[in-house]
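Go through this:
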Amino acid sequence: MQRLCVFTGSSPGGHPDYARAAEELGRTLAGHGIGLVYGGASVGLMGAVADAALGAGGEVVGVIPQTLVDREIAHPGVSDLRVVGSMHERKALMAELADGFIALPGGMGTLEELFEVYTWTQLGLYAKPLGLLDARGYYARLVAFLDHAVAEGFVTPESREMLAVEDRAEAMIEAFRRWRPPARAKWLDRSAT
């Protein structure tokens, strides 16, 4: 793993533990010599993960649309800041640059980014690990919902298992090292219809 993409919020969230988790992840990536690819902002958890990685001497690649640069939230300390024309271009470039994906706590944008790469991995378009860094149990209900979707037959157990869930950065790195894309002959069970 040379670089990991981190999806997270432009907000700091409602508890300091979220920023601490972002900082821990940034330092851990740098400590393992793994570059950070992220949304390029200086604010919220995005800024926290980038600042921590930079402070620990890590490589940081920011990818940000021009509209957000115009709003002055681009991180001024990121030497490799790639400005793109749209959110779609941002996601495509982040995915291209990364060897895996981690979602820290965040809002709608974080969830949308995560579920896009999750879906593409399920379809076999990506073979890259992905996970939720579950600071303060932020994603516990989402994980329970995914388990419910498996029980109800909308998500296969293999697809559910593609998503690692850890509460510490170091554990996530270890889970990613063990991660293998699922081997399956088919992804849809037509016998149930």
